[in-house]
Amino acid sequence: MRRRHALYLALSCTLLALPAASQQSKTPPTNLFIDVATHNMAGMPDMGGMMGGLGGFMARRMGGADSSKPVYPTARHSGLTGQYLDIALHNTLKPGVEAQDLIPSGLNLGKSLTLIPVEPSHSGKGESTPGKVPDIEVKISEYWGCSATVRPGQPKVATFKVKGGNKTVDPRAGMAGMQGVEVQSSGSLSKGLYVPDRDIDLQPGYVYWPNRQYGKQVPSGARLAGDHQITGDGIPASMKFQVQQDADFMPKLMLRSQGELTDAIDLSWPSVSRARGYFITGVHTDMKSQSSIEMVIWSSADVPGAGSELHAYLSGSQIEKWQKQKILMSAAATNCTIPKGIFASQGGGQPVPGILMMTAYGPESWITYPPKPADPKQPWNPEWSVRLRAKSTAFSMLGMNFGGSQQMQEDQGDGQQPQQPQKRPGMKGLLKGILGG
Fold first, then answer.
1. Residues 6+ apart with CB under 8 A from 302
2. Whether pLDDT at 379 is above 80
3. How far apart are CA 225 and CA 9, in angstroms?
């Protein structure tokens, strides 16, 4: 009797649980990720057809691919002026198998793009050679906010002293090879903001475009919008979708900077269509001597701690959150001022040309098939999904007036996008590069 009751109870619970299970979100077996970027390097013509983005260029050089072809990823990193497109596909039904994206004619890249596996680049054993670590002092001053004058409480300053005594260090030995190297620090910088890593990196089971065999530079004025179809072994026959104009390449970000390094530097830009918000960072370095470096970092955020890591693809919810916290500028912003003199050389050193980086965050959208039903009790088994992300970026040298050349680009432009800046490493990356890590 007890056994019958137990079986009945178990069966009842199972039946009651079925509708709830059908409400749960499910990951489709086939997922496509598309990133588009418009880069603009102030004062430079559209040379995207000659060179790919910085990331793709490095991948080619390290991986031995045809240097005339861009290699994934090209859109997330900044390079020369131009338009950049990255496509990654993961199909659990047939992982790592070649696929085709049948594209609209407006993309000007033929009838289809071929996606294949791309080998991650990595340094081979023995490429890192021992080197000497000198005694060096690095001073970093952090400023933030759009203002003609330095705000109260700024800057935050941190100093790092490395005492290497020209000790020879072998990078292949890891931390063990750093024995005897002393690092002292004083002061403190702001705690950096956490930026979720949602990029699709090179990994087994995925196929990508551009790649070493079929990579091409996206022509200026190309359009992603239109009908697409993904085909290949194991690809669902239903994988046909339309990219809307909202997810297409964004217009060029025409950043203008006016003012000497000793002055307040005025930054301005025309509104970028479909931009959800803006963010700017600046970095300037003075080489006081071979053993002394002074670095100034600045961001357009109204609060400290916002660094170059924010020049990434951000979700709509992340953009809204950081705008409320006054970290990102609104979509209505068209100007910003760098405080007077923060990037001016204090004398006695050799200034290294500083840079400005700016990002106009575009929309992020998803397409899922079949669409999720309105009724949460209705079973839903999606076959595939597509994530589309867009941004437009700009790069300019600090203290150099590119207003005239930018205006010329605007007059000659087609309303589309070009290309942009170079992604600055975050604080850890800057220190790593300075200290030879």
1. 144, 145, 146, 326, 327
2. yes
3. 54
